[in-house]
Write a structure and sequence with these properties.
This protein has 827 residues and is an alpha/beta fold. It contains 38 helices and ten strands. It has a four-stranded parallel β-sheet with strand order 1-6-2-5. A three-stranded antiparallel β-sheet has the order 4-3-7, with helices on both faces.
């Protein structure tokens, strides 16, 4: 076998079988290339990437990166070929560039890979499966279905065992139904007596450095092992490998003729026996005859360690990319350096970790390795040592170590000279101008929309969301509820590069693409609520050119939709959009007119729609009533005269609802409550209406529903009962008088009503009920106001807090004057 691994003129190619993303293989490849000094380096990968190889030497290129191929007419159909710093293919490319040696990719072209996936999609064979593409033979169909599909099998020494293989394009290589998709690493590890393939690989490869004079020994041994597996298992259930290997053999032969020997091939170890196999050119070409094609584009894109992880769904993934990166980059004493990294991370999280912890953890890891018969401590030993020494036996901080270090959030960088669609270039320009750097680690971004830069950042993020590029997700703002503040959670994932390419069909800039996409979405929207939500998103994204189309569609849908529930559901989003005119300077005049017309239609149709509803429908309609009430509150403040009368008309609708017996109790109770909160209903009148509903003549279930509508939910109903003991007394008297046979029926409603109150409110209500009306003073006399409050305003006490209020609101008063008045109050 050793003689077969020859080199030089007239000799066979130097076949270097590797494990993709294996640092041990990467070190061995570098040593072998240094010793062999080939004239050309052939690498497993798509040949379309040959023109991109020189960019790997660019100073701006920072792995992990990936080759991205996508269909020109269907950008969402794509495949990735990820490369990390410790990937043997990346090491081979860098070695070739440093030594001025040609580097070429020899795997099946991406034009066939993506067409293969399309064929499977059209045949209905492909299903949504974890991401990986081209190099895993039986998973090429996945590239069609998955929005992003990474290339390469699980290191090609360990094909991903997905129990579904792609149909072969030629009848000569039809898959054997009895074939079992094997994991070569798993078979070798089991043969060696290991139950963990990763641990076996660490022991025989990662912890074994290439000594002087034996640079080719690891490849010879691995080739012999793979030859035995191929002899036993054939293609191992990866039948499309036969096509790929035929193409690679043709490329190797062509390189042999061109360079007269001196050819080095870096490929998955699984393929080495097939490339060594003696076949005719005619037989290989027959396997490739008739393969479908699709026009493709290829470029470099940033990648992350997290996406190299097998847990991300990547078929060629590894368990610990961060750990492997450390093993590859550490010049010496990898365990000691690793423990130092872990200690730094834990100390940054305010955990007490000292140098003594690091020393003790290293000793424990070495002891565990010796007890387990391992040449050096591996990831399992270091993890056990970190858990015992630095984490005090807890898996909670250990999970942080695994997330941040073992897997990691390293995000690669690609040079600006890399090919990109115009939309990608415009996005990169905006990211630089707005100082929004894509990062793999999730972070929060607080924006103040009153600032020009923050407003522009907000607009960019909203536009990207419209385009389906979910770089940022809105989050609840902390410390402020003002509409001028926004909070975003940002995290850049590699597949977003595909989304950008896919969105490029809408335009060459972010603004033009988002505008075209919004207009298309408006025309295709199914429901009225969808159009109103889209109008709101257009305002957030500052797309004034898209608004005319959206408003036209909105007006048409609103005129045709007669369902009051749909109208009520659409109105709040429409009215919320009106607020953005203040903060973002957007003209929302046309939007206000549509909203006012929509509100009028809700007012007319709501009373009939609330009649004869069952419990579920009544609860849904109550939510609509709340939403419309909030919307009218915003819309009623608008300057237009027609809008100024909306609040009065809405209050008339509420009076109708609270007086109709055919309206469910939960809606009648809510209508009374809303009128009371707006000051349109006196407390005595509200108490009278409650007394009527809670009279013995009302069925207990209806009365309970009315109470739920009046004081239920998080609407402050509990505080209303706390401060108005008349209402609390009415509820208490009614509840104690409910017949035993009806109490079980009303208990769920009451429990749902009162369980929504805050603990302090429930405790206060319990105290008031326990002490009874006599201790509480009973009902307040007429004209005395709310119990617990004086009949008239105490002007002196009110004036005392004015300096504090003015200081909090930032009103125009000198700070010294405010401070003096504040001191006078406290004194």
């Amino acid at each position: 076998m050793a003689s077969a691994v020859g080199r030089g003129a007239g000799a066979g190619p130097l076949l270097l079988g590797v494990r993709h993303h294996g640092p041990g293989s990467a070190r061995a490849v570098r040593a072998a290339l240094e010793e062999a000094r080939p004239r050309v380096v052939l690498i497993e990968g798509p040949p379309e990437a040959d023109a991109l190889v020189p960019l790997a030497a660019d100073e701006e290129m920072r792995p992990p990166v990936a080759l991205l191929a996508h269909a020109v007419d269907e950008p969402g159909r794509s495949a990735f070929w990820p490369l990390a710093e410790f990937s043997p293919e990346w090491v081979a490319v860098r070695w070739a560039l440093e030594h001025d040696v040609p580097a070429r990719f020899i795997d099946l072209p991406a034009t066939h890979t993506l067409a293969w996936g399309r064929q499977q999609d059209e045949a209905g064979v492909a299903g949504e499966r974890p991401l990986d593409a081209d190099a895993d033979a039986a998973k090429a169909d996945t590239a069609a279905d998955a929005d992003t599909a990474e290339a390469d099998s699980a290191c090609d020494t360990a094909p991903d065992p997905i129990p579904h293989s792609a149909p072969d394009p030629t009848p000569d290589s039809a898959p054997d139904p009895d074939d079992v998709r094997i994991d070569p690493l798993g078979v070798l590890a089991q043969t060696a007596g290991y139950d963990d393939p990763e641990r076996w690989w660490e022991d025989v490869v990662e912890h074994r450095g290439a000594g002087k004079g034996d640079a080719l020994a690891p490849f010879t041994v691995l080739e012999e092992a793979m030859a035995a597996l191929r002899e036993t298992y054939g293609s191992g259930g990866h039948d499309r490998d036969l096509v790929r290997e035929a193409y690679m053999r043709l490329q190797v032969r062509a390189a042999q003729r061109e360079f007269e020997g001196g050819v080095a091939v870096v490929c998955g170890a699984w393929h080495v026996p097939a490339l060594r196999q003696k076949t005719t050119v005619a037989a290989d070409r027959a396997l490739l005859k008739g393969l479908a094609k699709v026009k493709t584009d290829m470029t470099w894109v940033p990648w992350t360690h997290r996406r190299l992880s097998r847990t991300s769904g990547y078929g060629a993934g590894i368990e610990s990319p961060g750990w492997y990166g450390h093993l590859f980059s550490a010049p010496d004493r990898p365990v000691e350096r690793w423990m130092t990294k872990v200690a730094g991370l834990l100390r940054a999280e305010d955990r007490i970790v000292s140098s003594a912890h690091v020393i003790e953890a290293v000793r424990l890891a070495e002891t565990l390795a010796a007890m387990r018969g391992r040449p050096l401590p591996g990831l399992s030993e270091t993890t056990d040592a970190v858990r015992a020494v630095m984490c005090e036996g807890s898996d909670i901080p250990l999970a942080l170590v695994r997330d941040r270090l073992v897997v990691g959030d390293v995000l690669g960088e690609v040079p600006s000279a890399a090919p990109a669609v115009p939309l990608q270039r415009d996005l990169a320009r905006l990211q630089r101008r707005l100082r929004l750097k894509p990062e793999a680690l999730e972070r929060e971004l607080e924006l103040d929309l009153r600032k020009e830069t923050d407003a522009a950042r907000s607009g960019l993020l909203h536009r990207l969301r419209l385009l389906g590029i979910a770089w940022g997700e809105p989050a609840a703002s902390r410390g402020s509820t003002g509409t001028f503040r926004e909070t975003w959670r940002l995290r850049w994932e590699p597949e977003l590069s595909v989304r950008v390419a896919e969105a490029g069909v809408w335009g060459t800039t972010v603004v033009s693409a988002a505008t075209a996409k919004a207009e298309a979405d408006a025309v295709a929207a199914q429901g009225l609520a969808d159009v109103t939500a889209l109008a709101e998103r257009c305002l957030l994204a500052e797309l004034p050119e898209a608004l005319p189309t959206v408003m036209r569609v909105l007006a048409e849908r609103a005129a045709l939709d007669t369902d009051v529930g749909h109208l009520a559901q659409a109105l709040p989003a429409l009215v919320r959009s009106l607020r953005y005119g203040d903060v973002r300077g957007t003209d929302t005049g046309a939007l206000g007119e549509v909203a006012a017309g929509l509100a009028e239609r809700v007012f007319v149709g709501l009373p009939p729609a609330c009649a004869a509803l069952d419990a579920d429908a009544a609860e849904e309609m109550r939510r609509h009533v709340d939403a419309v009430h909030g919307a009218v509150g915003l819309l009623g403040d608008a300057p237009a005269a027609a809008q100024g009368r909306l609040r009065t008309r809405w209050q008339s609708v509420l009076r109708v609802l609270c007086a109709r017996e055919t309206v469910p109790g939960v809606i009648r109770g809510r209508a009374v409550r809303l009128l009371l909160d707006d000051g349109e209903l006196a407390q005595e009148e509200a108490a009278r209406l409650m007394g009527l509903v809670l009279s013995p003549g009302t069925p207990p279930a209806d009365a309970a529903a009315w109470i739920e509508g009046f004081v239920g939910g998080g609407s402050g109903g509990g505080m209303l009962l706390v401060h108005d003991e008349r209402l609390l007394g009415l509820v208490d008297t009614w509840l104690t008088g409910v017949p035993a046979e009806a109490f079980t029926d009303v208990l769920p409603l009451l429990r749902r009503t009162f369980s929504a109150y805050e603990p302090g409110v429930r405790r206060t209500l319990g105290e008031l009920v326990r002490r009874g009306p006599a201790a509480g003073g009973g009902a307040a006399p007429a004209g005395s106001g709310i119990p617990g409050f004086a009949a008239d305003l105490d002007q002196e006490r009110a004036d005392a807090v004015l300096p504090v209020v003015r200081l909090l609101l930032g009103l125009d008063e000198a700070a010294g004057t405010a401070g003096e008045e504040l001191a006078g109050v406290t004194g």
